[in-house]
Amino acid sequence: MTSKLGRALDLAFGHPRGKVGELGGRVMAKVNAKVEQHVVDVLRPTPQEVVLVVGPGPGVGLRLVGERALKAIGVDPSQVMLTEAGQRCADLVASGRVELREGTAARTGQAEDSVDAVVSVDNLQLWDNRPASFHELRRVLRPGGRLLVSVQRWQLDVSEYALIQEAEQAGFGDVRTSLQQHGGLTPPSVQLFGTA
User: What does residue 145 show for φ and ψ, rounded to 5 degrees?
Assistant: First the structure.
């Protein structure tokens, strides 16, 4: 029973696919809206910045970034989520302020030193190789660029201290975490911040 439930949850939220993934995207858009808004408010993208959004899912945070930044680039391994994000951000895609493509934290497809900020909400637990992902995100950030990762605390399989160490080993500086409570059904999130 647990393995069937686990597979269904993975289809809906972990690696969204098919109709179950579409339903999962609608749930994520509602449940994560406060977290997405908070993270974008903390990031404070400016009209001069290019921001990489890792795992934008249904595009709620991607849209918020795209409305503020010069450009928001969303990379996600799920075609279902890319489609939903594209629909949610259709006007911003048409105007060139949002770009979507297949990718992961470890394989963004971005050139070195090409973005001013990287943001990721509720997908760090899905990164296949966290150290490689942190190295990739550091590689694509311009000097002085910002990294902001938010993940539900219960989904972390390492301590916050270990997470800080992984980011520091990838070359990030001023790395710190904070615990955020967003209310409602959303569990507390750990936010990791670092600079390139």
Answer: -65, 165
Question: Residues 61, 164: contact at Cβ < 8 Å?
Answer: no
User: Computed from CA positions of residues 39, 53, 177, 193, in that sequence, does the dihedral angle turn out positive or negative?
Assistant: negative
Please tell me the distance from the alpha carbon of residue 121 to that of residue 54, in angstroms, as a whole number: 8
What is the Cα–Cα distance from 47 to 192, expressed in whole angstroms?
Answer: 23
What global pTM score does this model have? 0.85
- The rounded distance, in Å, linking the Cα atoms of 127 and 104 is 8
Q: State the pairing for strand pair 173-180/189-195.
A: antiparallel
Question: For the residues of 32-86, what is the DSSP string, one character each?
Answer: THHHHHHHHHHH---TT-EEEEES-TTSHHHHHHHHHSSEEEEEES-HHHHHHHH
Per-residue pLDDT tens for 4-41?
545 544 544 455 555 544 544 454 545 677 888 999 99
Distance in angstroms (rounded) separating the CA atoms of residues 179 and 13: 23
